[in-house]
Amino acid sequence: MKIAQDIHYVGVNDRTKHRFEGLWFLPAGVSYNSYIIADEKVALIDTVDVAFFAEYLANIRQVIGDRPIDYLVINHMEPDHSGSLALIRDKYPQIRLVGNKKTMEMVQGFYGAASADDVVVADGDTLALGRRTLSFHLVPMLHWPETMVSYVKGEGIMFSGDAFGCFGALNGAVVDRDMDIAPYLPEMERYFAAILGKFCVPVRNALKKLSGLELRMICPTHGPVWCEKVGEAVEVYRRMSHGESQKGLVVCYGSMYGHTRRVAEAIARGAAEAGVRKIIVHDLSVSQPSFVLADIFRYNGLAIGGPTYNGGVFPVVEDLLKRLAGRDVKAHKLAWFGGFTWGSMAVKTIAAYNEKMGMTPVGEPLEWKQGTSADTLDRARALGRSLGEAILA
Ligand SMILES: Cc1cc2nc3c(=O)[nH]c(=O)nc-3n(C[C@H](O)[C@H](O)[C@H](O)COP(=O)(O)O)c2cc1C
Ligand SMILES: [Fe+2]
Ligand SMILES: [Fe+2]
Q1: Tens-digit pLDDT profile for residues 223-236
Q2: pLDDT grade, residue 334 (50/70/90)?
Q3: Residue 105 is inside which H or E element, if any?
Q4: Which of 33, 193, 201, 251 is the most exposed place for a label (fewest CB within 10 A)?
Q5: Is the preceding omega at residue 143 within 30 degrees of 0, hence cis?
Q6: What is the mean pLDDT of residues 3-13?
Q7: Which of 340, 344, 369 to mutate to test the pocket of ligand 1 (most atoms within 8 A of CB)?
Q8: What letter does residue 186 receive in the DSSP assignment?
Q9: Ligand 1 within 6 A of 31 CB?
Q10: Contact 187/196 with Cβ under 8 angstroms?
Q11: Is any atom of ligand 1 closer than 6 Å to the C-beta of 257?
Q12: Is residue 263 within 8 Å of 366, Cβ to Cβ?
């Protein structure tokens, strides 16, 4: 599929994987994008998951026929992209891999496939392909240490690796101008929250470093190619990496018998009374973590609660707390709540996690013993109102 002069999409769709990286729910699949630049030299940019190798090879041959491939540029070594590397090298023995020093170590470590002929590039190096020249820009920890982007000078085309990628398989078209992108932008946010949420500082550094490049087209390794909406894609990354959020509340709870849920409902009610209009309530036993994280990145208020469970907090609640403690999502107003039957630990556990999360506490943590009395629910509603006022302030 041609996306620009001499540049073709040769990626594949994975519509059967349930969880990306074994963790993140995929309701609409995912694409592994790879591109071919068929200039005087032929360069392949990244590969695809090895399970799709036969289809991938057919895509490549449809574009270049029997022509050899001169270079395989490796922007990112995660196996969803590097998985077909060794088989490509088998099919095209004369191919030269192009990557930085860290990439080549990983090529050897994962596939035992490094060669003395490979081209080791440093930050800013270039590679002439004929009519066009690629330049390479290291963007470490986006989201692995070897990650880089490749840029076509003059044409403003960036092969960005996972950056600006989305969950969601591609349905017919590849370039944004040829499709309805509405389902993909929230999926870019979910991808960011799940996979890049720990790396906001490296993302900001990368945006600063790349800001000198004119961008007319961004070709990521997942999801649509950004052309008309380059600005929107970059804006999502700017906003999310700076922790910018909208006014709104996410209420997250776990509950076995409904007491914690009733408190969560009362907190949501209180926030609505305070005038908050964006309120999302997640039962953490039901909602998928990546959707919960995306909502938390999106809105500036969070209420989180769970029952005391085996001397700690209910497991699905602790799971979210662990994920938040490992992410750069600080500028939030936080209220928390939790009940117990014989020995309270839930609210203490949440407080301990917030030492790492660094969110701004609002009001007193709400704690109750056994059943939820009318008084407890009144206090929950009042806590929701205080949180709502803090969110809107
Ligand atoms: C497996 C299990 C472990 C529990 N562990 C504790 C505990 O360590 N301390 C405590 O005070 N209550 C403990 N509880 C009691 C819960 O706090 C109580 O069931 C409460 O009603 C749960 O809140 P919920 O109604 O929102 O599910 C435990 C309950 C279960 C089922
Ligand atoms: Fe990746
Ligand atoms: Fe990826």
Answers
A1: 999 999 999 999 99
A2: very high
A3: helix 101-111
A4: 201
A5: yes
A6: 98
A7: 340
A8: H
A9: no
A10: no
A11: yes
A12: yes
Cβ count within 10 A of residue 55? 14
DSSP symbols for 226-243: BSTTHHHHHHHHHHHHTT
Confidence of residue 295 (pLDDT cuts 50, 70, 90): very high
CA quadruple 368, 373, 376, 380: dihedral, nearest 10 = 120
Rounded to whole angstroms, the Cα distance separating 56 from 145 reads 27
CB atoms under 10 Å from CB of 155, counted, come to 16
Q: Which residues surround ligand 2, an ion (CB under 5 A)?
A: 78, 162
CA distance linking residue 373 with residue 263, whole number of Å: 10
Closest CA to 197 of 56, 324, 26, 376: 324
Residue 259 phi/psi, 5° resolution? -65, -45
What is the C-alpha separation between 106 and 82, in angstroms, rounded? 10
Q: pTM for this structure?
A: 0.95
For 215, the token pair is 């961008």
Query: Does the beta carbon of 99 sit less than 6 angstroms from any atom of ligand 1?
Result: no
Average pLDDT (169-185) is 97
In 182-242, alpha helices (H): 184-191, 200-210, 230-241
Q: Read off the tokens for 272.
A: 């609505």
Residue 237, pLDDT score: 98
CA atoms of 167 and 169, how far apart (whole Å): 7
Tokens 């989180």, residue? 304
Shortest CA distance to 260 belongs to which of 133, 129, 127, 380?
380
Token pair for residue 295?
Answer: 């909502």
End-to-end CA distance of the chain: 50
- In this prediction, residue 69 has a pLDDT band, given cuts at 50, 70 and 90, of very high
- Map out the domains of the chain with their CATH numbers: 2-241 (3.60.15.10), 246-392 (3.40.50.360)
For ligand 3, the distance from its centroid to the CA atom of residue 200, given in whole angstroms, is 17
| Centre of ligand 1 from the C-alpha of residue 308, in Å | 5
Q: What is the CA radius of gyration of the chain?
A: 24
- Ligand that lies nearest to the alpha carbon of residue 338, given by its number in the listed order: 1
Q: Do the Cβ atoms of 75 and 144 come closer than 8 Å?
A: no
Task: Output the CA torsion sign for 357, 358, 359, 365.
Answer: positive
